[in-house]
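Hi everyone, sorry if this is the wrong subforum. Our group has a chain we'd like a structural model of before ordering constructs, and none of us has done structure prediction before. Sequence below.
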Amino acid sequence: MRRTGGRTGTGGSFENRLRLPQEIVDALKSELDIPVGIRISVLEYEEDGYSAEYGVKVADSLRGIDYVHLSSGRNAPPGSSASFYSDTLHILRMIGRRPRVTTVQSGQ
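Answer:
Right subforum, don't worry. Here is the predicted structure as tokens:
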């Protein structure tokens, strides 16, 4: 089954892939007096998907964010609900360590 995206490039280095989100965070923080955070999928459940550690690294690397909203999943069965409602598969047990910023986690 073909997954969404289909992109073959990676966007370059890790730092280059964070450039646009960092610019957005910086712009929001300079103009608004509100908490700014990101939502990121930390578990893709795909053999070639990025790991939970990669998602945590993104959250730890963005400067100025006030929180990170952890999500997980894929767009094909079995989906992501198990990672939120199963004691053994719960997302916070699976990521190994939490980001250094306030962490929000919710299920579907």
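For your construct planning: DSSP finds four helices and three strands in the chain. The chain has a mean pLDDT of 75.
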